Amino acid sequence: MEQQIRDIMTSTVFTIKETQSIQEAGAVMSEHNIGSIPVVNNNGDMVGIITDRDITLRSTAQGEDAQTPISQVMTAQQVVQATPDMDVHEAAELMAQQQIRRLPVVENGQVIGMISLGDVAVQHQLTDDAEEALSSISTPSGPQK
């Protein structure tokens, strides 16, 4: 039987506006012990995602100020996302292909949840999918030129 993402996703999701600072994003990550936050516009539509890695590589390493707007360092193009009715096996495969550990779940442009590799791994019938995804995610990629 297919299991949908809506059945296992985390529905408590913290979002941040694209106009807020990277310092504010870091504070939300620290307070809630999370590594990524969906970025929304004033209408609440998802426009990107910011990760602790984005903050490190695209701002801190570049000497950016802590008040730099999130919009300047977030991943905005081709943000990988899921829909609540997507099959969990399909989501695990998507995470493996894209080498990501978390997927925002979006419905009608609005973030309604998050699914992580951990969410997949705790489902007994999905253990093989989680192992395969983790193996793919953990495969080293070469340096970008």
Give the helices and strands, then pairings:
Blueprint: E1 16-17, H1 22-32, E2 36-40, E3 46-51, H2 52-60, H3 88-98, E4 102-107, E5 110-116, H4 117-121, H5 127-137
Parallel strand pairs: 1-2
Antiparallel strand pairs: 2-3, 4-5
Organism: Virgibacillus necropolis
Protein name: CBS domain-containing protein
Domain CBS: 9-66, 74-131
Biggest β-sheet: count, sense, barrel? 3 strands, mixed
- Count helical runs: 5
Kindly provide the radius of gyration, computed on alpha-carbon positions and rounded to a whole number of angstroms: 15 Å
User: Between the first and last Cα atoms, what is the distance in angstroms?
Assistant: 44 Å
Average per-residue pLDDT, rounded, comes to 85
Structural domain tally: 1
The beta-strand count equals: 5
SS-derived structural category? alpha+beta
InterPro entries: CBS_dom (IPR000644), CBS_dom_sf (IPR046342), Diverse_CBS-Domain (IPR051257)
Protein name: CBS domain-containing protein
Domain CBS: 9-66, 74-131
Pfam families: CBS
